[in-house]
Amino acid sequence: MCGVTTSDAPLDLPLDLPGYQHVYSGKVRDLYAPLDAQGDVDPDRLLLVASNRLSAYDWMVTPEIPGKGEVLTRLSLWWFDQLSDLVPNHVISRDVPAAVAGRGVLVRRLTMLKVEAIARAYLTGGGLEEYNAKGSVSGVALPEGLVDGSRLPDPVFTPTTKAPFGEHDLPMTLAEVEAELGAEVAAEVSRLTRAILVRGNEIASRRGILIADTKVEFGLAPDGSGGLVLADEVLTPDSSRFWPADQWEPGHAQPSYDKQFVRDWLTSPESGWDRGSGEPPPPLPEHVVEQTRAKYIEAYERLTGESF
């Protein structure tokens, strides 16, 4: 990144990848379309590349986090394997151009659902704020007396809108999701999102990590055939809150292995940034960049048992 922005796409330029055409850049990932010998776009495949960019509070922060894109890609691929019996995923091949090796993957083209599918196993963040105000999250009534870090009786589906970059996602009720997707698809999105979080916690808890909540993306084949397909990323430090299990203590914010560490620094006296000012956040100091990288790598290594 060469700057901080809330524009519709990051400022960095797409990579020059022979045989591929740049299609889109999001907060973290870039999409490229494979080209055939005649220069025509492949209608069925995309190259998905995870960058080292990091977004927080709807701002792109600088500098980038070295190695982050590879951590997200490798961890997502590992989780796709762990979840393969629950839901199909979009991965076609890990054979990608050398320039994006380790952080790129060839995937199926899908029609993505216009809903952020979120499930919560513990109460914190925006869910806690809504609970404190209403006693519920996304229309789901929760027991009284819950505090920051409380484990929920069962994981709950708390979807949000999928707002353009720079705008805030807004909580949705299940009825609103049904209006957007249809009752049958909405019910399956809810079931799968919660099942992914349950499976994730079954595996992660054995490795000393609690997954408080997670966001997943689903798509459908463009021709409408088949069911839901899990896409983008899954159970990474960017899309989930990871807490060290041996330090879990409800009643206050938990230590984490995810980008909550960056959020906490941005709103700390050290940063001097006023989140409500409309001004971009300051650059991350070197020690925050290094600790964020270390947290992402530790999460990867603890979960997978592999050295990064």
Question: Count the strands?
Answer: 16
Number of domains: 2
Q: What is the rounded Rg? A: 19 Å
Q: Find the CATH topology of the largest domain.
A: D-amino Acid Aminotransferase, Chain A, domain 1
Category by helix and strand content: alpha+beta
Q: How many alpha or pi helices?
A: 6
Q: What CATH architecture label of the largest domain applies?
A: 2-Layer Sandwich
Low-confidence runs: 1-11
Q: Any idea of the CATH class of the largest domain?
A: Alpha Beta
Helical percent range?
25-40%
Work out the strand percent.
15-25%
Helix and strand string, N-terminal first?
EEEEEHEEEEHEEEEHHEEEHH
Largest sheet, strands/sense/barrel:
7 strands, antiparallel
Shape call: globular
CATH superfamily of the largest domain: ATP-grasp fold, B domain
Average pLDDT value? 92
Compute the separation of the termini in Å: 24 Å
